[in-house]
């Protein structure tokens, strides 16, 4: 029997969407994107549905992002399927942000990449003590997408730049600090919260009533060196500042940046700086779509997924290999609007 990848249910006035690929950390397929979109469209017009809640099956996470093995096969085959996946995924992200009914996302466990796209733009976003939140795209030769570049760009100071260039993860306190979440609810209280959401009329009030003080935000204590180092105009200067700061955590961050795709980190810095000035999530998603389509034509995405997911040797052979080899023209190519790469949201 085929796996039901998205379980749908109504509980009182609550429409429930459960991502149901627990063995794959609920990673997203194109079919799942289509199912969620059709369901949200139906529920928007259904007076019986007062609010929507998104959860993930199993105890490991809400969603680890796109199904990278499937993406690798698609990109190797030419990338048309992945372009269509990105297009429909980003349009779903925009719908969630503008959804006419309260959209509650329970980011319990691993919530990365596409999982952030499904949750981070919701009306009420909940983390637990098990939450690990990240936009780890530069590690696989991609650039933060699904509206993640907008969330990173709006984080306090240069925290978003640090997270985007390093692909570092956030715990629940940092996710709250950086604007990726709204409330902390212990995982043991999630069943109780779901029951209350099905019963109560105001989801935001209900979640707030179940929330507790979060764990400390680790990044809050590192703001001084992060804001100083990542304010530089180029990735090369950022790395130089990190290495010269004398702070052990800064040196570790420099090593993370240098281990990621040189092209991806340079394009990420440019995209985040541009995202700060863009007027809406839709405009950011349009930019991200151009960048993601350009990445499909380069070598690093296939190589990054191979190294991290397929062969798991953790030894990607990036091309170009160094930051110095990535030119301004290379970065501009990712940001340029090419025929056929228009998302058309803004």
UniProtKB/TrEMBL annotation:
Coiled coil (residue ranges): none
Write down the Pfam families for this protein, in alphabetical order.
ECH_2
Enoyl-CoA hydratase/isomerase domain residues: 15-335
Q: What is its EC number?
A: 3.1.2.4
Its top-level enzyme class, in one word, is hydrolase
Q: Does the keyword Hydrolase apply?
A: yes
Known catalytic reactions:
3-hydroxy-2-methylpropanoyl-CoA + H2O = 3-hydroxy-2-methylpropanoate + CoA + H(+)
What protein is this chain from?
Answer: 3-hydroxyisobutyryl-CoA hydrolase
| Organism name | Kitasatospora cathayae
Q: What is the lineage of its organism?
A: Bacteria, Bacillati, Actinomycetota, Actinomycetes, Kitasatosporales
